[in-house]
């Protein structure tokens, strides 16, 4: 059985300058699947990347939905904090250490 998968294009600047894909995420059957590589020498790099993702996603919501950029970012960050504190998440592990 052949599946239908809708992939994003590689950003033109990345094609022009070269580089490496560091994260790919997909939603299938209501679940999130991802592959990634460490990519940064320090975990702070991922913090900067995640902050940039929130900014971009907030802008998309402000452009395409009823949410403004600040409200979208707030909802994303609140959900992020909640997920990080989940009993099986890294936040729960960090809180125990």
Task: Write structural notes for this entry.
With 97 residues, the protein is of the alpha+beta class. The chain has one domain (12-96): putative pyruvate dehydrogenase fold (2-Layer Sandwich). The protein is built from 4 helices and 2 strands. It has helices spanning 12-17, 44-64, 69-84, 90-96, and strands at residues 23-28, 31-36. Strands 1-2 form a two-stranded antiparallel sheet. Helix 2 (44-64) packs across helix 3. The termini are far apart.
Question: Which residue ranges are poorly predicted, with pLDDT under 50 across at least 5 consecutive positions?
Answer: none
Range of strand content: 5-15%
Number of strands: 2
Q: Report the CATH architecture.
A: 2-Layer Sandwich
Could you tell me how far the N terminus lies from the C terminus, measured between alpha carbons in angstroms? 47 Å
Short description:
The protein is 52% helix and 12% strand.
Supply the key terms:
97 residues, alpha+beta, putative pyruvate dehydrogenase fold, two-stranded antiparallel sheet, 4 helices, globular
Helices and strands, with pairings:
Layout: H1 12-17, E1 23-28, E2 31-36, H2 44-64, H3 69-84, H4 90-96
Antiparallel strand pairs: 1-2
Helix pairs in contact: 2-3
């Amino acid at each position: 059985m052949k599946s239908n998968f809708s992939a994003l294009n590689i950003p033109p600047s990345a094609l022009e300058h070269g580089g490496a894909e560091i994260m790919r995420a997909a939603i299938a059957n209501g679940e999130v699947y991802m592959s990634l590589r460490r990519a940064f020498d320090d975990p702070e790099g991922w913090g900067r990347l995640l902050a940039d993702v929130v900014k971009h996603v907030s802008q998309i919501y402000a452009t395409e939905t009823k949410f403004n950029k600040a409200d979208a970012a707030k909802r994303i960050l609140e959900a992020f904090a909640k997920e990080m504190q989940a009993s099986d998440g890294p936040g729960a592990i960090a809180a125990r250490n």
